[in-house]
Amino acid sequence: MSVLERILVMGITGSGKSYQWLTIARSLKNTNAVFRCIDTDNDIDYMLGTQFQDLMPENGGNVYVIRACDWLEYKTAIRWFNKKMSKEEESKLDKNQLIAYKKPVNSNDWLIVDKINNAWSAVQDYFVDGVHQEDIGDYFLRIRKELKSKGDVGKSGQKMTSITLESIDGWKDWPVINKLYADFMKEIVYKSRCHVYAATDVDEIDKKEKDPEILSLFGDLRIKPAGQKKLGGQFHSIFLMIPGSIKPFQLSSGM
Fold first, then answer.
1. Of 88, 112, 167, 211, which has the fewest beta carbons less than 10 angstroms from its beta carbon?
2. pLDDT tens-digit profile, the chain (255 residues)
3. pTM of the model as a whole
């Protein structure tokens, strides 16, 4: 039984998160390993067209890309990976996406999510759009106006000076949002029968942070993976990409 990798790579923009997995794809090009990438910030096609042209399918490469911006596109991308698309969805795939869709997923293949932290923002946008029938930016603005009209007092009765995700819990149904997100992550981390490589940005750890998992894994660094707070605990290995460094710095190994 082969060991399936679950790798999370975090770092600032330009630190080499995408470059790292593309070099892995290049090194495995002759092994029949297929790399299926969910691209959430529209960078991978540019990198394939410049530094990694040999990885493009039309050049004999092994990297196939599907883009995801809003939450419905994320769900479509997972159905693409899991071979569960409708005929209508299949008809909208481009030539390379259709090739990857028809290839079976093997244990030596890779699922790439670049960047996975964008999924957390997308699911919140989806919830606000669906429940409140308005753009999330307009939603935050409306809540800010409501707070201002009440003297900056939130639903808990405490005075607030800014709008943050934590300060508007009363206006958002976090169990529903977390369930939507958890269902997506389950397909990636737990159900996929291939290697997984996810890239994410970094966030500073707030001085008020009390989560023991976050503090034990990342407390000394004072930074953590951007996105949903449990993201760091869902992968076997976590690497911090440092700009200018040849090798990534491994933070942890094992869930």
1. 88
2. 578 999 999 999 989 999 999 999 999 999 999 999 999 998 999 999 999 999 999 999 999 999 999 999 999 999 999 999 999 999 999 999 999 999 999 999 999 999 999 999 999 888 877 765 556 566 666 666 666 665 555 555 565 555 454 444 545 578 889 999 999 999 999 999 999 999 999 999 988 888 898 998 898 889 999 999 999 989 999 999 988 665 565 665 555
3. 0.82
